[in-house]
Automatic annotation (TrEMBL):
The keyword Signal applies. Keywords: Signal. The keyword Signal applies. PANTHER family: CYTOCHROME P450 FAMILY 1 (PTHR24299), OS09G0441600 PROTEIN (PTHR24299:SF21). It holds the Pfam family p450. Residues 1-22 form the signal peptide. The gene is ga13556. It comes from the Eukaryota. One of its GO terms (molecular function) is heme binding. This is Uncharacterized protein.
Length: 96
């Protein structure tokens, strides 16, 4: 077999495996499988394995966060790659 073909198949298999494991552990927002922590997180848009929510940031970052705040409220969570972030977009909610 061609080396490029093997590399593409390997990447596809790893992507599918990661996706299935993330879905088994919850809705993809919590790859560690900690259900208690997941229930305490603010709402979040659906994420993509490996990338998290980076696919949602196509416009300037502040404009993307503003658009997400309109859709999910002033407090929401995002996963940037493997890092979890909680976004608070109003001073009133930041004080809480």
């Amino acid at each position: 077999m061609d080396k490029a073909y093997v590399a593409v198949l390997s990447f596809a298999f790893l992507f599918l495996f990661h996706y299935l494991v993330a879905r088994r552990n919850g809705n993809g927002n919590d790859s560690e499988g900690k259900k208690g922590v997941q229930n305490k997180l603010p709402p979040s848009p659906p994420s993509v394995p490996f990338l998290g929510h980076l696919h949602l940031v196509k416009t300037p970052f502040h404009a993307a966060l503003s658009r997400l705040a309109k859709q999910y409220g002033p407090v929401f969570s995002l996963r940037m790659g493997s890092r979890l972030a909680v976004v608070v977009s109003s001073p009133e909610h930041a004080k809480e």
